[in-house]
Amino acid sequence: MSDTIAAVATGAQVCAIGILRLSGPEAVSIVERLFTPADGLPLSAHDCKNLVYGTLRDAEGRILDLCLCTFSRAPRSYTGEDTAELQCHGSPVVLTAALEACFVCGARQAGPGEFTRRAFLNGVLALTEAEAVADLIHAESLEAAHNAAGQLSGALSGRIDEVYRSLEGISAHYHAVLDYPDEDVEDFRLQDYCETLNQAKQTLRRLLDSYGRGRLMNAGLPVAIVGRPNAGKSSLLNALLGYDRAIVTANPGTTRDTIEERLRLGALTLRLTDTAGLREADDEAERLGVERSRRAMEQAELVLAVIDGSAALDAEDEALLLEVEKAPHAIVILSKNDLPQRVKKLDTPLPQLTLSAATGEGLDALQREIEALFPLPVVPAGEILTNARQAEAIRRALASLDSAARAMHEGQTPDIVLTETEQAMQALGELSGRSVREDVTQEIFSRFCVGK
Q1: Strand runs (DSSP E) across 257-301, as ranges?
Q2: pLDDT digits (tens, 9 = 90+) for 236-277
Q3: Is residue 308 part of a domain?
């Protein structure tokens, strides 16, 4: 990392303020060639992290902007390197010209997530903290933002480090006795570490149990709205969204394809999919729509089964209920309760409620029912696992500790227990970044935006 990188951190859109950032050994000297403080002093003569007002010019000396600049010296910066930021007026033309001037002066274009990747490689951020940066940027709820901010501040990496150090203590004691038999080292006894292993397992189990919520919190809860044609599915979608997203007519089969939208519902983000009516299709287009509806139902974490309460129940409704009962979670909705009801109660173990998309009656009850199915975990902010990589590493570490505890209980030799313990440490090292492979870090940071 001997080169200096530069990127526009605020995207290509017109905005009030645009930020150009640099990181690397030449970051400050490059900016000094382009930016002249209003007080006439060189930028480097000012205090680190102070905002300095001045004139920004291109590589040929032509004025680009009157703006602010700040710089930080290694290792006390975001990346752990010398960094500089220009806070300009948010014109894409100005920012592009300033970036090109940086390239002329010796910087190169930063890759996706390269600033945060350098922070990780320089030991400023643990890998879980670096991942939290992306989670914080893309947070769609306060819950997700709170958790990402907690992870960024070290809540998750702190828990992992506690477990890692406790296992490291077991391993260090064992190897000290093995390698230095003539030294005055206390004898190694497995039973002395039984409680240590149990506490480590409890911590990892609690973290792993949080993954289900973390996955839904970040990716959103996949919800399929299913039912017969004209049951009120699209009307329900529109009512939940608060505007007419789907076309609604009195003619059955208006929706021929799936319609997908995201919706904030309390602390949850729903990925709503309105589907074509489930029935025997009369033509090819409708048949394809029904097939997509069934795929959406199979992939959903929550299915909202809409039954027209103003019409008599028929065999297709009953078949739908049996199919919906196989879903991970489901709610049955008797729709159109603003009309005379012919169905008031269904014979199903699933939770059910009545609702009118036309008047909005029952929408609050639906929200409460969904929130009851997916309650917030009682976990401190920052200790919710949010991606499959984190969960898999915890799962492998926990499996190794289970094997270690079993070997200890069965009276096997210490080396067997220590082998499993050190495998758990390896998995935890991958989680925090101590021992993660280069291709894994490349994949993680490739999902970041340029400039972060």
Answers
A1: 259-265, 268-274
A2: 888 888 866 654 444 444 444 567 888 888 778 888 888 765
A3: yes
Tell the residue number behind the tokens 């260090």, with chain if given. 172
Confidence of residue 216 (pLDDT cuts 50, 70, 90): confident
Q: Look at residue 288 and tell me if it is in a domain.
A: yes
Give residue 249's pLDDT. Answer: 43
Give 187's DSSP letter.
P
Q: Contact 221/243 with Cβ under 8 angstroms?
A: no
List of residues 6+ apart from 177 with CB closer than 8 A? 185, 186, 187, 188
Q: For residue 367, give the nearest of 263, 213, 230, 281 by alpha carbon.
A: 263
pLDDT given at position 162: 93
Which of 110, 129, 160 is at the close of a domain?
110
* 407/251 Cα distance (integer angstroms): 67
pTM, rounded to two decimals: 0.78
**Domain check: are 13 and 76 in the same one?**
yes
Residues 316-320, mean pLDDT to the nearest whole number: 82
Domain of residue 402, CATH code: 1.20.120.430
Reading the block at residue 6, the tokens are 């530069």
- Structure confidence by residue, pLDDT tens digits, 70-85: 999 999 999 999 999 9
Residues 240 and 372: their CA atoms lie apart, in Å, by: 18
Please choose, from the candidates 242, 181, 213, the residue with its C-alpha nearest in 3D space to the C-alpha of residue 386: 213
Residue at 60: amino acid letter: E
Same domain, 225 and 200: no
| Residue 448 domain-assigned (yes or no) | no
Tell me the pLDDT band of 95, cut-offs 50, 70 and 90. very high
Taking a C-beta distance cutoff of 8 angstroms, is the pair 90, 16 a contact? Answer: yes
The DSSP secondary-structure symbol of 110 reads: P
Answer yes or no: do 259 and 290 share one domain.
yes
Inside any domain, residue 419: yes
Q: Which domain holds residue 68?
A: 5-110
Beta bridge partners of 108: 5
- Tell me the three state secondary structure of residue 222: strand
